[in-house]
User: Fold this.
Amino acid sequence: MYNLISESNVLGDISIKKTISIVLALLAVFSSFISPAVFAAEPHTYIVRYVPGKGEWRSQQRSSWDNSEESYNLDYLWGNIQDGDTLIISGDEDSPTFGDLKIEKKLAKLTLYAVRSGIIVCSKSAINEVYVLKGTSATLNGQYDTIYVYDDSSCEINNDVSKLQISGETCMKMNVTAHGMVGFCQIDNRGNVIYTVYNAEPDTLKVVDGVLQDSGKGSIITPDIPVPVPVPASVGEEPKYSFWDKIINFLKRIWSFIVTALHIPELSVSGISACMEQSDMSGNPIVDKS
Assistant:
């Protein structure tokens, strides 16, 4: 009787383990056919600011800095930020040089706000939008879909960019140098377009104090009518997401929790195949008896 009960418990444990393995394998295969942007974690906004009392740049998971809230070192930021998130680097006149900002994730938006001491951005994945605001001095390395430079900010762009928008809301003191190809560039003063450049070749587009110095081989248009210009990104702006985006991203959070809780390594199709080679058709592990 004892043997029967023991055997039944063992079979039950094996059945549960097989079920979990099958579910995880199916999730891994399913996720390989889904765009990472769709299967990404729920988007969040993080803000980074220099904290004199801590003597370092620190982060909060929010859209604007709150001195009454707890802040965390940058290890917390890099351990939690995900594809599709928004990152704000907020400086002031007393902030020290930030140095290199190395971004591994594909962010939806990066805002550099009043980082006057200088910052070098190195993005491994393409970033949808970059805002250079309030006197920021930035060097951008990596792929960016759209870059917005405002007022008295300075920006050196070392790679190709699809769209470059240079706008003066309070003044026309921006300095921009593009070392890569620029698909489209528009310069405006309070909505009044001054220059429009198409397909500027590398090292041919330069703006000094809001004035286009060299348009290269791009076509120039100087319209006399104002056109709508994107509003500068607000430090307090919250991202908006559809209902289905939230559902999908919530499921992704659950999956991330399961992986973390069970210490499951990242699965892939090749990884599943390797696991199958270690089991017979019944799902039981093959034991080397040699």
